[in-house]
Fold this protein.
Amino acid sequence: MNVNLQIYNDDYKEDMILCIAHFFGFHLGLSSEGAIDNIDTSIAEQDLNEWTTKENQLYMIMYANNVAGFLRIGYRGGNVAWIEDVFVKEEFRNRGIATESIRQAEEIIKATPPYNAICFDVVPRNVDALKLYHKLGYQTLSLITVRKNLVPKESSDTQKINGLEFKI
């Protein structure tokens, strides 16, 4: 497969800003009626600047000489690295690109002492991502993030964990 992770450089800034905007639009769409395409690119540009700091490694996912998306690794300290975000543009999905990108990121992290474990944060409604991560061996629950919406939001989907019911 012709997929490789290439460390981000400013030659691809505009494309990366659009990818980040679409990434957040997708996540907003998980809690509404579908992906949202009108995300403010100035916010995406701010995120790009934050994601290229010493604690982060932002990679462009290159597929057949095209930017197919991005993958970001966060080094938060200790011995656990986080694959913070993975995004593949819609026109490149279902080709194994995310799978191969994650495998390459695992090799990068393995080669970076002292990191010997990898975690993901994933929105419970992102079932496709959960299935992919599970298939790749991410089968141990490590942390659970709980959230309280300060603006009321209706959600009928729930999940029980240790006998407690949570909205997802």
Q: What stands out?
A: The domain at 3-167 is CATH 3.40.630.30 (Aminopeptidase).
